[in-house]
Amino acid sequence: MYSLYTFMYTAFTFNVNTVYSQPPIKLQSAMAVAKKAYHHGELRESLLSAAGALLEQDGPAGLSLRKVGRQLGVTPGAPYRHFEDKDALLAALATEGFRKLRAAILANQEGAPDGQERLRRAGLGYLEFASSHPELFRLMFGWMPARDVPELCEAGDAAFAAFESILETCEEEGLLSRSVREAGLLTWSAVHGAAFLAIDGRLQLGEPTPNAECVLNLLHDSLWSGIGRR
């Protein structure tokens, strides 16, 4: 079956070698959390946490298993017991990223009065995730592993399905003027494009750094006029 994740990668590929630097204090904090997990015997989780922090600081080009191991103070061979090579590490990071993205899309749904509001909150979660993890977001959509990684495709499809499930609710409530698939493509494309523009600092909205909610509110009104029933 043709994966929706593969489709989204093809449609929105990006050069992941662009470096997005993060303040040193964020890296230090993330490393402290990773080392704490390591000392509790959770080496794989610690490696992923440390790799995620280094990814945000140096981008994929500056990431290596040896560098991650040095940050945690483990032997050079220890990371290879959990990840065959750098490609496997990046695939694991991207997979976890899609799982977190899905969680962000579905967060804060409780108490929403209708499908339209649930969709707005989902879009806000998407934009906030991208702005909080810019290099991970680039990795997820601008890189493909050298080998098949079924769990990565499954995680990507599940993230898209989260949007679809909300749109299915909108359809059940009689709120859509388009099919769920058409509305899903339009919604994801718009929010995804805005997310990349935002992390690149290319959104011109009359303020230096528009926040995610400001961007989302503008997007949602325009999008809903195209997919919502009048």
Count of domains: 2
Relative helix content? 55-70%
Structural class: mainly alpha
Give the DSSP E fraction (strand runs of 2 or more residues).
Answer: under 5%
Instruction: Write down the overall mean pLDDT.
Output: 83
Q: Estimate the global geometry from the Cα principal axes.
A: elongated
CATH class of the largest domain: Mainly Alpha
Describe the structure.
It is a single chain. This protein has helices at residues 4-11, 24-39, 43-58, 65-72, 86-106, 115-132, 134-142, 150-172, 180-199, 212-227. It folds into 2 domains: 17-81, no CATH class; 87-227, Tetracycline Repressor, domain 2. The chain is built from 10 helices and no strands. The chain is mainly α and 230 residues long. The chain is elongated. Helix 3 crosses helix 4, helix 5 (86-106) runs antiparallel to helix 6 (115-132) and helix 5 crosses helix 7.
Characterize this entry briefly.
This protein is mainly alpha-helical and 230 residues long.
Q: Any descriptors?
A:
10 helices, mainly alpha, disordered N terminus, 2 domains, Tetracycline Repressor, domain 2, 230 residues
Helix and strand arrangement:
Elements lengths: L3 H8 L12 H16 L3 H16 L6 H8 L13 H21 L8 H18 L1 H9 L7 H23 L7 H20 L12 H16 L3
